[in-house]
Amino acid sequence: MIRYVVRRLLESVPLLIVVSALVFALLQASPGSPLAQLERDPTITQADLERIARERGLLDPAPVQYARWVAGALRGDFGRSMQTGRAVTTEILERLPNTAVLVLTAFVFTLLVAIPVGVLSAVRQYSPFDHTVTTLAFMGQSIPIFWLGLMLILVFYFALSNPFTGGPLFPPGGMATTGMEHSWTNRAWHLVLPVVMLSSTWVAWYTRFLRASMLEVLGQDYVRTARAKGLSERRVVYRHALRNAALPLVTLIALDLPMVFSGALFTETIFSWPGMGRLFFQSALRRDYPVLMAIVMFTSVLIVIANLLADVAYAYIDPRIRYE
Amino acid sequence: MSDDPGAASVADAGPGGRAPPPAGAPSTGWRLTARRFARNRLAVVGLVVFLAVTLAVTLAGLSPHDPDRTNLRERFAPPSLTHPFGTDDLGRDTLTRVLYGGRISLLVGFLSMGFSIAVGTVVGGLAGYAGGWLDSLLMRFTDLFLSLPSLFVLIVLSTMLADSPFARAYGGTLMIVLIIGALSWMVVARIVRSSVLSIREQAFVEAARANGASHARLMVRHVLPNALGPIFVQATLQVAVAIIAESGLSYLGFGIQPPTATWGNMLKDAQTYLTRMPWLAVFPGVMIFLTVMSVNAIGDGLRDAFDPRKAL
User: Fold this and answer.
1) Class of domain B53-70+82-305
2) Residue A71 to residue B125: CA distance in whole angstroms
């Protein structure tokens, strides 16, 4: 097992090197000077521009810049934002907790909804409940989430109002009302719509997946054995069937990570949520390459790690899987 | 992980369906598949909706309005008989723009699908057929692309190319098609590879090889035709993926640029006037939703139709 983990870790190193080289090359090849912001400033002369470019190492050959970037990245230094002049790492670390709050809440919400609904849907296959769930899950899988976000704002911010206060039912964005950042209820209130938006597709996928997986498991011999020895249906379903049916979810969670990142980008952009996705969006608008590069690298690393963890976790919880 | 059993069963029907059908069974695999598909109500509804959308979009030219002509006297008009979907801030007819936008969205969907299916089939087919080091190399290459956060890379690529003449060709459509295709072939490659892996072990491939068929002939004539089932399913799902990707990119402003209307960039414009003109946001979104849903329904129906475990 340890050998397998080590081997997989070593395998992912060249992968990450190629990814970083690829993204770096792309950003290098991109048109538009990274100093565009300064060039437009009339108080900065051509000589100043050249000096700044030399200071920032922008005149060095690309491989040198790449090597410098990698060396820095290994020390946690991703250069400075061209927009704000602050360290990219600081910028990202500032936003990261906000994205984490959003994504983790959405994740917990997804599991809380998808597991019971998927199980019930499978247990009562072809019931009206099952048909409703299947239809909703199918729709949820196809809905463009950026549009869902707009519709949520339209309905829950503009159209509906809170019957007690007369104000909007839910806020249209932000993490908290200004001045109320320490109120947990206020923050939770701001989380509702973004979480619904981010988890919609996710809930749909997992419900469908769990339903299918449960249906398969419920037909297995060991489930029949469990029933035959007189266990309560509840015990059969949740102890014997669900445990096995939910196993593949572990792999699914890792594979879904890219989807979650792109979901977070849309969600944060629509709901002005100061997270990493919004930072990426704004940096792309401003062509702030160091920030873009760092976020792409960061998410790639997370994806590689998540895949590794999923394989290992899967091997750990399912003794039938053996890695040489 | 996903050794598609559908592939093996299509292969059992024999190359080109020339094997005599077992008594009582429908004559060919394709007819059987079509019959199974027709029995799936959701899939048939999906097909009808999709054909309706395609037809409407094709006939966009019949609209009395010009999609790009501004009419300052009819700005901000809510849905009415003359403008069923209302007008926008420049007085343009939303229905007409939705139809013309649909042309671009569907075009991008299909062209990107063609690109990703082509790349995915070549990569997955070569890897599965050749095996050995070529297989490892191509699959590492696939893993590489899979570990990129695709939306982020799409945005980077689109930003990067924004000023190039390439981005302006055909209103940016070509560029969007290529970058979406370049980032969505990986699933196709994996599925084609696993199908090819199981098909190349079949007896009829062995027989053809014994008859002296070349690699190219084996691949094109015997292996790939039997992997068509899963490829078809993927092709359908890729159309949905590409439509979502294009509209998402255009919605963020990194896709196809105005004045060329697409469902995505119409939503972007609608955002500014969300309260004043909600219809601007509702209709393009409904169109994306309907189209993607119908394509997914067709894809699900095809998958079930190709999967022998389900029917009969």
Assistant:
1) mainly alpha
2) 39
Q: Which two tokens stand for residue A26?
A: 């792309």
What's the count of helices (H) and strands (E) in chain B, helices before strands? 15, 0
CB contact under 8 A, B148 and A142: no
Which residues numbered 156-175 in A keep a CB inside 8 Å of some CB on B? Answer: 158
Instruction: Indicate the domain borders of chain B.
Output: 53-70+82-305
> pLDDT tens digit string along B163-181?
777 777 777 888 899 999 9
What CA–CA distance (Å, rounded) separates B267 from B281? 5
**B137 reaches A (C-beta below 8 A):** no
SS3 B312: coil
- B90-125 in b/e burial notation, b at 16+ Cβ within 10 A? ebbbbbbbbbbbbbbbbbbbbbbbbbbbebbbebbb
Question: Strand, coil or helix: what is A259?
Answer: helix
The complex scores an ipTM of 0.85
The answer to whether B175 contacts chain A (CB < 8 Å) is no
pLDDT in tens, A142-178: 999 999 999 999 999 988 888 888 788 888 888 888 8
The whole-number mean pLDDT for each consecutive block of 10 residues of chain B, a chain of 312 residues, reads 39 42 53 85 92 91 80 78 79 87 93 95 93 91 88 87 76 88 93 91 88 87 87 93 94 87 90 84 93 94 76 37
Q: At what angle do helices A289-317 and A2-29 cross, to 10 degrees?
A: 160
From residue A25, how far is each of A170, A176, B160 by CA, in Å?
A: 44, 39, 11
**Roughly how many angstroms between the first and final C-alpha of chain B, as a whole number?**
26
Contacts of B140 in chain A (CB under 8 A): 15
pTM here is 0.86
